[in-house]
Amino acid sequence: MGRTAAALVIGNEILSGKVQDTNSRSLAIALRGLGIEFQRIVVVSDDVALIASEVNALRHQHDLLFTSGGVGPTHDDVTVEGIARALGRSVVRSSEMESRLRTHYGERLTEGHLRMADVVEGTELYPGSDARWPTMVLGNIFVLPGVPQIFLYKLEGLLPRLRGTEIPYTTRSVYTSADEGPIKPALDRTVANYPAVSIGSYPRWNDSDHHVRVTFDSRDEALSLAASEAFAALLPPATFIRAE
Amino acid sequence: MGRTAAALVIGNEILSGKVQDTNSRSLAIALRGLGIEFQRIVVVSDDVALIASEVNALRHQHDLLFTSGGVGPTHDDVTVEGIARALGRSVVRSSEMESRLRTHYGERLTEGHLRMADVVEGTELYPGSDARWPTMVLGNIFVLPGVPQIFLYKLEGLLPRLRGTEIPYTTRSVYTSADEGPIKPALDRTVANYPAVSIGSYPRWNDSDHHVRVTFDSRDEALSLAASEAFAALLPPATFIRAE
Q: Chain A, 119-138: which have a CB under 8 Å from a chain B CB?
């Protein structure tokens, strides 16, 4: 059994529909590549008490917790405070971060910028992609920013740190022109015969390419291939489009 | 105080990164238009026990709960079973849904299709956008499908049912060429002077248009306008781009 992970996405802008969250999908793809099971995403607003309560629930229920958003210098950036409250720790100014900010901003440095040097007591500053802008790590909590490009850049820098002994999942896909009703017998039989393969059925709406994509996921590449081939062989005549 | 809402997005395909969830954003935009406060999004896998537990938490903590996904005919469509378990009810075949499915599919009807006639005992079938394909409603739970086009179509059909007495939020935005450090004094002062306005600061990365967008949200249009104008007047010289 490999490690499990959750994401806590923080930001009023997601819940008001101003911004589409794409960070949790970037994280999903990265965790998948590592073979870590991504079990839950929670999105909440910029509220210290809510963040604290979710951080505490998620960090105990999962091996790894990633937060997204709320780490800049402005009033609505309250993730650090939320995590501090969850852990019952103080927020302290990091001299290491302060010195990096002073070097970077020079004469342009404001008191506002310095707020980004405030960290939860006991924070590890992991160098990651760019030693000048380390990522805050608190035990099993990885604190990432909301801006998608920086989220992804920092996430990539965490990969060596996150890599464990898990074997990544392999996905095989079968595309069919039939809808879910007629393929259900083939699907049910394959599900019964391959209990160790996670099988998903994804219908499309007005897609000129295919009607349903069926995916076969397993940490055992040969098994996902075998399940996909068994399913394809059971499909109603002339409904198979392709496998990949 | 208006009503609050949560979304439960169900699907392994989101957590594996195969698919980007866009339904929760469609819901965010719709709820915003209605003036309903969207407080939380939770994404979990196709697991009956997990769905049941989340449904029970979310339906009690919020006035409205919307589920997305897991309502088709295949083995991985377990949302109805999850909601039934949450409510301590049975899954029963709806004769109304069965007759609609028989009419629609005619001779092509399979046992698989009929699984879509299985509903939680006591389900209300709300006609919505298309009386042929009603939406399942259970008290404050609205059950929507995962396919984005159908999700949106059904959501639009629910709007008359969801509309209450809430006054929708108005958003004013100020775009600036400064980064968050230098605008923080103007921001902090505006936040202090307009406690009834929800103010958000959203930095962009390598955007040729602007560096930070600051938004001012209120159910009182005049107040959000006043806050945005007060903030714009406090910005450092030559950093204001536009307001809208």
A: none
pLDDT band at B146 (very low <50, low <70, confident <90, very high): very high
Of B12, B17, B108, the CB nearest to A198: B12
Rounded CA-CA distance A133/A128 in Å is 8
Sign of CA dihedral A229, A233, A239, A240: positive
DSSP category for residue B153: H
At a CB cut-off of 8 Å and minimum separation 6, what does A77 contact? A46, A70, A71, A115, B201
Q: pTM value? A: 0.95
Taking only Cα atoms into account, the Rg of chain B, rounded to an integer number of angstroms, comes to 22
pLDDT of residue A169 exceeding 90, the answer is: yes
Q: What is the pLDDT of residues A52-109, one digit of tens each?
A: 999 999 999 999 999 999 998 899 999 999 999 999 999 999 999 999 999 999 998 9
Q: What is the CA radius of gyration of chain A?
A: 22
Residue A24 with chain B: CB contacts under 8 Å: 21, 43
Give the ipTM: 0.95
Alpha helices in A88-220 (DSSP H): 95-105, 111-114, 148-162, 180-193
Tokens 């299985």 correspond to B118
